[in-house]
Amino acid sequence: MAITRKELPNFTSRMAFILVTAGAAVGLGNVWGFPYVAGKNGGGGFMLIYLLALAFVATPVLMAELLLGRMGRASPPTALKNLQIEAGRKEPWPVIMWVGLMGTILILSFYMVIAGQAIFYGFEAMTESFHGWTPEDIIAFDAAYKSDILLMAFWSAVFVGLTALIVSSNITTGIELAGKWLTPILFVLLVIIVIYAGIYGDMPAALNFLFGFDHLVLTPGVLLEAVGQAFFTISVGVGAIMMYGAYMGNNVNLPKAVMWIVLMDLGVAILAGLAIFPLVFGEGVDASAGPGLIFITLPIIFAKITGGGVVAVLFFMLLAFAAITSSISLLSPTVARLEEAGWKRPHAAWAMSFAAFVLSFLTIFSFNIWSDYYPLAVLGFDGLTAFALVREGVSNVILPVVGVTCALIVGWGIKKERVKAALPMQETVLFKVWYFCLRYIVPIAISALFLNAIFGG
Ligand code: TRP
pTM to 2 decimals? Predict the structure, then answer.
């Protein structure tokens, strides 16, 4: 049954909406993912491709998803059901959002493991401060954590429990309050670390690495990675953003809000790069150190430099804050769907957190007892652990597929006049570019990347 517009609460102001949605966008993807992906793909050249993917593929989809949420005014599957009925179409639109909802729980299942380690490191930095540790100590510390299944499960549970607690509350006292406070705090913490990195690290080398165009690598694999990162970082492609769209008031100017959200997300990713790479180059460490950048490379540096203990505490707190405002966006859509089915909000929040926690063992085991187990090796996915399969499956398959479907629904499924009225927007250049991206650029770009991934070998 379709839920009516009045039943769903709204965020209290435009500012609240922007901060909360930016908080959902800014997360581990910016601080843990972006520097790693940029480092792996060689910096500057990748940045250019990434910016293009962000501007012409991911951002148009972000706006489409928000719009669908605001128009449908319910949990993602129900919102699309409402819109499908309204548009008089026969294709089962809600199906795609059920895929999206699966995606939210899958993301949450690995997200909590990484965020859990960040909280653990934050406490460790507070009590032990890493000071005077040798690189070997830190490598051993990371390895010991990753081999301790109970400890990993404990910190993952702490993180997802906090998420459930916030989501259990009303929209305005839970999600909104968390986003309004944590997002600005995060920004301030990050700026402090960047200043610190500028003083103690090698800032010119970092700038050159991130923005220098001496090595442009253009392979289909890099393109797919850029699109995947762009989708992941602004949280499109599972309905999390659609849900926030449903809580967005009609007073919010959509294109402007989208611009702010994307700029804040990009700003934080760049700031994270400027916090991490000066320290990395200053110490002569390899910039492409991979996911270990955060849990090995950085602590090694924190152990060496003056004031490193304080910076370490700040840094891991920041990571945990960034992660929690994102994880609440991941939990919201399924919880809203269960509420529509008559569940109480807290029950739904704890039940879905528990489901994600059970799934998190796929990730936890991948660091220890399953570290050499490649579940889908027979299908040709050799060398991918369960964690890698979940992460890459979501980023490279679910996000683009759901995202492109949202683009097609807004671009082709709903009448143009209706879309313009719902934004609301005149047929300006901005509108035309956006609409063209939805109708052609997004579907063509994503199909091309898929065909290449399947047949390109
Ligand atoms: N964007 C967040 C990050 O960068 C993660 C995230 C939150 C997300 N909600 C999402 C990713 C929805 C994809 C879809 O860490």
Answer: 0.92
